[in-house]
Write a structure and sequence with these properties.
This protein has 301 residues and is of the alpha/beta class. It contains eleven helices and eight strands. It has helices spanning 17-23, 29-38, 86-104, 131-141, 174-193, 207-213, 226-238, 241-246, 256-261, 265-268, 283-297; strands at 43-49, 52-58, 70-76, 112-117, 147-152, 160-164, 199-201, 218-224. It has an eight-stranded mixed sheet with strand order 1-2-4-3-5-8-6-7, with helices on both faces. Strand 6 (160-164), helix 5 and strand 7 (199-201) form a beta-alpha-beta unit. Helix 3 packs across helix 11 (283-297) and helix 4 runs parallel beside helix 6. The radius of gyration is 18 Å and the shape is globular. The protein starts with 16 loop residues before the first helix and ends with a helix.
């Protein structure tokens, strides 16, 4: 069964008034998500893991079939104190909240699990600090292992989806690499089927890093304006140290500022007061809605 038009997204046609409320300093973002979903008939629960408050969306049981792999779809809701966080990562939160509302009324099998994670912005000191790392570890301990993870981060600017270029953990078994490559190719197939102009380039790590480190196949999806994607691609070819910088690896200290200036402008806005409502492009949300709906319709054994 088909989904409703992607324009059903609360921010696809124009940015919703709720969005501005979500960005206000002092907003309890976890409570906001629960209230927003509840008003649309979607229940959820807070799962506390090592001091982080993750939000799990409860969808009707008839949407699941054990024949197919479960697809876990994630967006972190925490922000840094010095930024409104309009793109990083309120954009993905709103896309997933509206997606959850569509799934709640979907009549077929979607096999989607949705988490809004806490503590992504704490991962600057290493992947083990991420809230997603401890969440993934907890899922493993609960016997949840055979799932595909889709992470959405900073999807509110531009028309070009970027599939993060990941390097698998050292010593990853061939069976894991096979599942990861199948997941990646599935995303590529979705982009192609939707007729999207997309790129596969390195991006700053997000919650996908925490899941990869725990043995879950995980991909990260973001959005960029076309001009920024093209400029970034050229910069990666011209400056070898840029890749190391994006991947949070050591680079010559005297090059740090210059490398930062080579990042897409969208990423340079992250963690600044420039990551505000005015920086977003509403058409981005319609594209992400189409991608999310296509993920829900994808079935793999």
């Amino acid at each position: 069964m088909d989904f409703a038009s992607p324009q059903a997204s609360g921010v696809a046609a124009k940015l919703a008034p709720e969005y501005e409320m979500f960005l206000r300093p002092g907003t309890d973002r976890a409570a906001f998500i629960q209230t927003y979903l509840g008003a649309r008939g979607v229940d959820c629960a807070v799962i506390s893991v090592e001091g982080k408050r993750h939000i799990y969306v409860k969808l009707p049981r008839q949407g699941y079939d054990a024949t197919f792999r479960v697809k876990t779809i994630i967006a972190h809701y925490d922000i840094v104190a010095q930024s409104p966080g309009a793109n990083d990562n309120s954009s993905s939160v709103f896309c997933l909240m509206d997606f959850a509302a569509r799934l709640a009324h979907f009549k077929g099998v979607h096999n989607c699990r949705i988490f809004f994670t806490d503590g992504e912005e704490l991962g600057s000191g290493g992947v083990h600090e991420q809230g997603a790392f401890s969440l993934a570890s907890t899922m493993q301990k609960c016997g949840i292992r055979d799932e595909d993870i889709y992470v959405f981060d900073c999807v509110g600017r531009g028309t070009v989806p970027l599939l993060g270029l990941n390097v698998l953990p050292p010593g990853a078994p061939a069976s894991f690499a096979k599942k990861f490559n199948a997941l990646k190719q599935g995303v590529v197939g979705i982009f192609s089927s939707l007729g999207l102009n997309w790129v596969n380039l390195p991006m700053p790590y997000s919650d996908n890093a925490g899941f990869l480190a725990n043995g879950f196949p995980a991909v990260a999806i973001t959005m960029l304006p076309d001009s920024e994607a093209q400029t970034y691609m050229a910069a990666l070819q011209a400056e070898p140290d840029l890749l190391r910088y994006v991947q949070n690896k050591d680079v010559p200290p005297n090059k740090t500022a210059a490398l930062h200036d080579l990042l897409p402008y969208t990423w340079r806005l992250m963690h600044t007061d420039g990551d505000d409502l005015a920086s977003l492009t509403p058409q981005s949300f319609g594209i992400i809605a189409r991608i999310l709906d296509a993920i829900a319709l994808r079935k793999t054994m």
